[in-house]
Amino acid sequence: MSTIVEFMSKNHRHCDEVLASAEEAVNQKNWDKGTELTGSFLEAIEHHLAMEEQVLFPAFEERTGMTMGPTMMMRQEHEQMRNLFQQIRSALESQEQADYLDSTETLLILIQQHNMKEEGILYPMCDEHLRADADRLISAMEQVAA
Predict the structure, then answer these.
(1) What are the start-end ranges of the H helices in 1-146?
(2) Deepest in the core among 50, 65, 116, 118, taking most CB within 10 A?
(3) 26: closest CA among 92, 82, 89?
(4) How many domains does the chain divide into?
(5) What is the pLDDT of residues 93-139, one digit of tens each?
(6) pLDDT in tens, 39-48
(7) Is the CA virtual torsion 25, 47, 99, 106 positive or negative?
(8) CA-to-CA distance for 59 and 44, rounded, in angstroms?
(9) Beta carbons of 49 and 81 less than 8 angstroms apart
(10) Is the pTM value of this prediction over 0.90?
């Protein structure tokens, strides 16, 4: 049996690695590779956010009755991230290296803070309240389209 903390934390690491590779490519002005890797990152992170918003958060909220707590805050931070995704896409399209790297650096800081809250507080709460359903929820999250 997997835990939600393990599954989602592993997914965080994957997203972080792809973003770091994309930044490295853009830093070297390899725009083709940077575009490809940024696309892979945005697809991976949108999938991650969708897994949370469509499966995990609703299950947690239904089980606990907490709709104005940690999941509300995480959804707000997801919207902040999505605003940065748009800035990253724009900088990539215009090949503005400094704008791209500034936006990804801001995003990285936001993601790190966000992930600490999820991995340290929300996911352990999910494991506590949803333990019996963890395998089913993880399977459902894997099926979510980005």
Answers:
(1) 4-27, 31-51, 57-64, 70-93, 97-117, 123-130, 134-143
(2) 118
(3) 92
(4) 1
(5) 999 999 999 999 999 999 999 999 999 999 999 999 999 999 999 99
(6) 999 999 999 9
(7) negative
(8) 22
(9) yes
(10) yes
**Tokens (6 digits) for 12:** 């965080």
Tokens 């931070």 correspond to: 77
Find the CATH number of the domain harbouring 61.
Answer: 1.20.120.520
Tell me how long the chain is.
146
Structural domain containing residue 94: 4-143
Per the CB < 8 A criterion, the answer to whether 33 and 55 are in contact is no
Two structure tokens written together for 136: 């089913």
What lies within 8 Å, CB to CB, of 87 at 6+ separation is 99, 103
Return the DSSP state at 133.
Answer: G
Which residue is associated with the tokens 């900088």? 91
CA distances from 6 to 33, 65, 133, 134 (A): 30, 24, 15, 11
Tell me how far apart the terminal alpha carbons of the chain are, to the nearest angstrom. 25
Structure tokens of 13? 């690491």
